[in-house]
Request: fold
Amino acid sequence: MAEEHGGLDWLRGRSVLVAGAGVSGRATIEPLRDLGALVTVTDANVDALAECARLGAATVPIDDLLAERDRVAEFALVVTSPGFRPDAPLLSLAAGDGVPIWGDIEFSWHVDRAGLYGPPRRWLVVTGTNGKTTTTSMLQSILEAAELPSLACGNIGLPVLDALRHTEPRAEALAVELSSFQLHWAPSVRPAAGAILNIAEDHLDWHGGMQPYIDAKARALTGEVAVLGLDDEVASSLFSSSLAARTLGFRLGVPAPGELGVEDGYLVDRAFADGERLAPTEGITPPGPAGLMDALAAAALARAIGVPPDAVAAGLAAHVVGPHRAALVAEVGGVTFVDDSKATNPHAARPSILAHERVVWIAGGLLKGARVDDLVREVAGRLAGAVLLGRDAMQIAESLARHAPEVPVVTVETGDDAGVSAVQQTATHRVVVLPADTDSDAVMGVVVREAAALATAGDSVVLAPAAASLDMFASYGHRGDSFAEAVGGLDASDISRTLR
Reply:
């Protein structure tokens, strides 16, 4: 066994601590046991720990482990789930004791390179502030059209370790969506090709600032081919510092040599061919500039490993947009209702709002340190109204007061302690206070009715929160489903009520 998996033979018989008992943490248990390691999982969730125990791991509640500080030094390695910040007490303690800390992606990379589950795969890494999941799913569709055994994994849902263990059929290429959290803890990853779609303010609270966030994303640019979104100022600025053997870019305009772009209604490749047409722009979903950018990135990654143009065209034609990504929910009284709950930061909300002429904007949640002023300033002329919810709703309301003072705003809060701010005293800002025990679905019901009341025929009510959902909802999917359910309860009499 040690000879077969030489890069990880030092783990045989050693104790390894897995920080986090969620999906990614559970996925590490079987590979660690296959390597002969003694696995202990820690978490605050006792039910999740019980599931890990059923998988054969020892378990310890994280508070108990922190109370016995000397225990952490007994581990040969800590494998952390991406949710743990670098300054988390457990990881700070491990670092102080000199215990190596790997993320689950770092561990996955070493498992793959060591050949634990067969010859190493080709990793095609997708990262960026927005568009990661769409690009990864497009890439997987292209790989399937090329009849290349592959799996989409990582932040898209399937843990990379589970993809490595998958044998029917065995994946030869992996379309790997990676978040900045995952990349922060994965310094060794060297993909066959890695793409950064764009970079805008997001997760600054986790990383401690913009530059550490950018540095984490840049770890995708360390392999054979690096792909950068040239229309994004921050992503394109990384061209000169890329560590990849070859760096190329994609843009919405006509591509220069060494680029992919758009010309005469086609995606065109001047990086791996001399102006080869890859696919018509018409029919790519999601439609619009953001969808075309994602398609160009997916095509570049596929072309980097030799996928032919006809497979790119077939894969993009077959691609179906995932839920909660600018999905049309319904039309009620001449008003369209759009679910873009996946727009969890201002950069993602921008194209969703700009896709419509007049918008009643539903926004709010956890801004994660991101600023909304630039977004509000740009979209102000399209706003027929805004309805806000969630912990950071007041920050968005204050930005609207500064940059769109004529736009009517409704903030929906729970409890009798609605945020107090001078912005509330204006004639255009109204606060609706619900009982403190109102559940999130009921809050969304009120939000949707208030948005419908601000809309007139021809408007679009767009859920593009510009913020994360976890202050109120289980996930962005739950938030989107709650929105759709609330829209389903409307009728034409709910439209334009505030104008009557």
The chain has 19 helices and 21 strands.
